[in-house]
Amino acid sequence: MRKIIFATGNEGKMREIREIFKGTPYEVLSMKEAGISADIVEDGTSFEENALIKARAVAKLSGEIAMADDSGLVVDFLGGAPGIYSARFLGEDTSYEIKNQYILDQLKGVLPSGRTARFVCAIAVVFPDGESGVRVATVEGRIADAPAGDNGFGYDPIFYVPEFGLTTAQLSMEQKNKISHRAKALEAVKREVLCAGTDV
């Protein structure tokens, strides 16, 4: 099997990734599992740029195929915030419980039509020869009135998906993978970039 090093230490994320890569000729390892430690500065101005910065750094350090994602929550009422700063929103060490409550407080009294939001995910792949590819996917929804569910992580408890009538933290893994921004971007990368072996 060929190794892919994924630039994350997030176990929730790794579970989703491994589920999607089941049955492929690739073994996906986290940086920790690959014995790679790096402090990568994400100074891009878009999800795509940040994903490429991380994947290039890990490819250089490992000599293997590297993948990275940059994803976040975009809330229209907040002018697109937290956006590319989703992980660092209100401070890097701030819990998601606090982040989620802050967003809910900002949208207090806002009607459902004004609570539109989306999860955005950019996945970058960088091959050892420097070739690269990026795919971006989104899932549309709105900010819930209150947190619900414990199947997800991050902003999942406050992201409501009208199609299911549930937050992404209430969805099963199977349901989530059908609509998830990360799942869609990973599927596109798997199909269009890794199979092609180059950027397309």
Explain the overall architecture.
With 200 residues, the chain is α/β, with parallel strands linked by helices. The chain has one domain: Maf protein (Alpha-Beta Complex). 29% of the residues lie in helices and 24% in strands. The chain has a 7-stranded mixed β-sheet. A hairpin with a 5-residue loop joins strand 4 (116-126) and strand 5. Helix 4 crosses helix 5. 40% of the residues are buried. The model has no long low-confidence stretch (mean pLDDT 91).
**Structural shape:** globular
Order of helices and strands: EHEHEHEEEEHH
What structural class do helix, strand and pairing data support? alpha/beta
Low-pLDDT regions: none
Features:
Maf protein; alpha/beta; 200 residues
Compact summary:
The chain is built from five helices and seven strands, in the order βαβαβαββββαα. The protein has 200 residues and is an alpha/beta fold.
Mind sketching the topology for me?
Layout: E1 2-6, H1 11-20, E2 26-30, H2 47-62, E3 65-75, H3 96-106, E4 116-126, E5 132-143, E6 159-161, E7 166-167, H4 173-179, H5 181-194
Parallel strand pairs: 1-2, 1-3
Antiparallel strand pairs: 3-4, 4-5, 5-6, 6-7
